[in-house]
């Protein structure tokens, strides 16, 4: 696993948190909720891609297919 992926996920989390806090301070709670959901979807997409690569690597190591 590359350490850069962890840094990318952390950067996404920090960026989404800052944007949500700014939106909440300006009384845009509905948009802040949408931004947090979009950030969650982006992070989950990255994580699912990593898990798919992991399964492909395991399949290749054990010559399962």
Q: Could you estimate the helical fraction of the residues in percent?
A: over 70%
- DSSP summary, beta strand count: 0
**SSE string, helix = H, strand = E?**
HH
Radius of gyration: 17 Å
Mean pLDDT across residues: 93
What sort of overall outline do the alpha carbons produce when their principal axes are compared? elongated
Largest sheet: none
Uncertain stretches of 5 or more adjacent residues? none
Give me the number of helical elements: 2
Measured distance between first and last alpha carbons: 22 Å
Residues in β-strands, percent: under 5%
Q: What class would the helix/strand composition place it in?
A: mainly alpha
Secondary-structure blueprint of this entry?
Layout: H1 3-25, H2 29-61
What features would you highlight for this structure?
about 60 residues; mainly alpha; 2 helices; about 85% helix
What does this structure look like?
The protein is mainly α and 65 residues long. The chain has a domain of 38 residues. Helices cover 86% and strands 0% of the residues. It contains two helices and no strands. The longest helix is centred in the last third of the chain and has 33 residues. The two termini are 22 Å apart. The model has no long low-confidence stretch (mean pLDDT 93).
Report a brief summary of the structure.
By secondary structure, this protein is mainly alpha-helical.
């Amino acid at each position: 696993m590359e350490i850069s992926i962890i840094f990318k996920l952390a950067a996404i989390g920090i960026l989404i948190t800052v944007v949500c806090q700014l939106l909440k301070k300006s009384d845009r709670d509905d948009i802040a909720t949408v931004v947090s959901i979009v950030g969650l979807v982006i992070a989950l997409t990255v994580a699912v891609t990593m898990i798919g690569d992991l399964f492909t690597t395991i399949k290749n190591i054990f010559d399962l297919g």
